[in-house]
Design a protein that fits this description.
This protein is α/β, with parallel strands linked by helices. The protein is built from nine helices and 13 strands. Helix 1 crosses helix 8 and helix 8 runs antiparallel to helix 9.
């Protein structure tokens, strides 16, 4: 089975501080480090690690391929080298001349583990429809699962969805500045988003979405708008809500929903939690291509994987391997 991740690849510049500075205030940070990130790259790493053991050269049934763009600079070359070490096929990654690699400036509040991110997309925004040329198009056709986010242009994401028969795992993050219409997407089998993104897409205010009793109604509207099979709403410390509907009829009478409680962990850094969730979930989708997909089990495993991630500092460096998970 092949998981194709199409998305962003960044260098992370991470500052850790006791608290977030106020406007006009200067604080001395507790530490600074550089690392590798980007929602696309993070999700590819999560797919790769959660489908194999750390210290083995044995091949797995799941191949992970990254498609994206970096600048023709040292950061871009380092990102490709790092992904390759995680057994990710980077033949679909291009280095774009005259453009910087995407950069994320991240401030992590040590007391809570919460982060704030300022993103400079750089080469990521060169991923326009047709970017790969006709000779690359078959990559989208032969994948079993395609994972997509919104740190690359939205029209590129729409074009990919329209030209693939693979199952699409779509994480509409970061939340778009302009309204995202699910009706503009040919098909989305799996939609994974947090409460802010859910509000932006559904039109319901975030205060309404914060109440779990309201989520079935929100899910119903999204199922019907975009013909989405499975909807997952990650809710931080409140856990995860999920909903599924009849694939053929999209009849709300066939809708089933449930929830999973948040794992009790010591939160150190939340930077890559959402991306780990998406990657772990995509692995479960890929494993079910020739069999039955258990939505609740996929959500449970993704939730546990994300919980392991927040216990460590960093983005990709914090993403766990399969042998760190209880079901390995």
């Amino acid at each position: 089975m092949q998981i194709l991740v199409v998305g962003s690849m960044n260098t992370d510049l991470v500052t850790r501080t006791s608290r977030i500075p106020l406007a006009g205030e200067t604080l001395t940070s507790e530490s600074f480090e550089t690392g590798y990130g980007g929602k696309g790259a993070n999700q590819a790493v999560a797919c790769a690690r959660l489908s194999r053991y750390r210290d083995t050269e044995n091949p797995t049934d799941i191949e992970v391929k990254m498609v994206g763009a970096v600048g023709d600079d040292i950061y871009g070359r380092e990102i490709i080298t790092s992904l390759t070490k995680d057994k990710i096929d980077c033949s679909g990654v291009q280095q774009v001349k005259g453009t910087n690699t995407g950069t994320a400036v991240i401030i992590v509040e040590e007391k809570t583990g919460e982060n704030r991110i300022l993103l400079s997309p750089g080469a990521n925004h060169s991923l326009r429809p047709g970017f790969w040329g006709e000779e690359k198009d078959p990559e989208f056709l032969k994948a079993d699962v395609i994972v997509l986010q919104l740190e690359i242009p939205q029209d590129t994401v729409q074009s990919i969805v329209a030209n693939t028969s693979a199952q699409v795992v779509f994480n509409p993050a970061p939340a778009p500045d302009t309204p995202l219409r699910l009706e503009d997407y040919a098909h989305i089998e799996h939609l994974i988003m947090n409460e802010t993104e859910t509000s932006m897409i559904s039109g319901y205010p975030e205060e309404y979405i914060n109440e779990e009793d309201h989520l079935p109604a929100v899910a119903t509207s999204l199922h019907e708008k975009g013909h989405v099979w499975n909807i997952i709403i990650t809710r931080g410390s409140k856990g995860v809500f999920y909903s599924t509907i009849g694939k053929e009829s999209f009849d709300s009478k066939e809708m089933f929903h449930g929830s999973v409680k948040a794992e009790k962990v010591n939160v150190v850094d939340t930077t890559a939690a959402g991306d780990t969730f998406v990657g772990a979930y995509a692995v479960e989708v890929a494993k079910s291509v020739q069999g039955r997909f258990d939505l609740r089990e996929a959500v449970l495993r993704a939730n546990k994987a994300a919980a392991r991630t927040v216990e460590k500092k960093g983005a990709q460096s914090a993403i766990p391997w399969l042998d760190e998970m209880p079901w390995s």
